[in-house]
Amino acid sequence: MYAFEYHRPTSLADATSLLGRASDGKLMAGGQTLIPTLKQRLASPSDVIDLSAIGELSNTLVNRAGRLVIGALATHASVANSAEVKQEIPALAYLAGQIGDPQVRSLGTIGGSIANADPAADYPAAIVGLDAQVQTNKRTIAADDFFTAMFETALAEDEIVTEISFPTPSAVSGPKLERAGYAKFPNPASRYAVVGVMVAQLGGQTRVAVTGAGPSVFRVSAFESALAGNFAASALDGLSVAPDDLNGDIHASAEYRAHLVKIMAQRAVAAAS
What we know:
Layout: E1 5-7, H1 12-21, E2 25-28, H2 34-39, E3 47-50, E4 60-64, E5 67-71, H3 76-81, H4 83-88, H5 90-97, H6 102-107, H7 110-116, H8 123-129, E6 133-136, E7 140-142, H9 143-146, E8 147-149, E9 152-153, E10 161-167, E11 177-186, E12 193-202, E13 205-211, E14 218-219, H10 221-229, H11 254-272
Parallel strand pairs: 1-3, 2-3
Antiparallel strand pairs: 4-5, 5-10, 6-7, 6-10, 8-9, 11-12, 12-13, 13-14
């Protein structure tokens, strides 16, 4: 890897200051993406700012106006094993438990995952499907506005994700989560989502979010309309997703991914029910 200055701040204020002073600084949470990228010399940042020592970013709470609040540095394993997450949003705990392998789940973080915006990552489906809010050191970003393109988000260069909040069945304001389910067809080696679908009902609204199939997470309005009238897997019979803008690679063609979107959506509905 190329030479860089390494920093390990212990507060969000220090991390923000370091990021502002660096000519080309990169943030590191769990390092599951950045470290391999550096080792392969695909990036040459001037500074690497390691967020792992900032305790305030690791908390998981459920008592903020009835919303499940997860710190950006919460690992996949901590989300999957959290009693609070299992009680409030079982589908989210299940999703986290399907990411990678035990080693990846022990190091990878929810904040790092969504900031990287890998098109085959699981968490984007949860963020959009559950209508979450992403909090940064500067503002709150709605789920539908956060992911903008492949490996791109609405984050500015000097923004740091601090926490993500999700509606729960006991939400005080805004839509309450009624039920949710997640299903994915994993790559057998990496466990990345060839296609993953989160389906949720929130305050009478149905959301269907798809990851892995396209350049970025997307919603399927036709599925949402059908499920709003009849929340059952059979409601999607006869519907399909066009393969035109979907990914095609050695793992699955665009046409096969289009088929999987429907199958995974039906399985997610069954899981939610």
